[in-house]
Design brief:
The chain has 65 residues and is of the alpha+beta class. The protein has one domain. The protein has one helix and four strands; from the N terminus they run E-E-E-E-H. It has one helix at 51-63; strands spanning 6-11, 19-22, 28-29, 43-49. The chain is elongated, with a radius of gyration of 15 Å.
Amino acid sequence: MKKKTAHWIRRTHLFRKDEYECSACGFCADKPYKTCPHCGLPMKGSEYDPYWVDEMAIFDDIFGD
């Protein structure tokens, strides 16, 4: 039987530090841990989510760029 694992989804923001979301339970942490503090699953790597692009689009709409 294969042991269940998860990975961190790294969300980068424009005006605040990065956050890491567990792919299994959705828990957000300030740094990537070896195991998720919420669900306890071991982590295997990470995935980059350029969330800052969506934040920048909001500012573009506000300022008309």
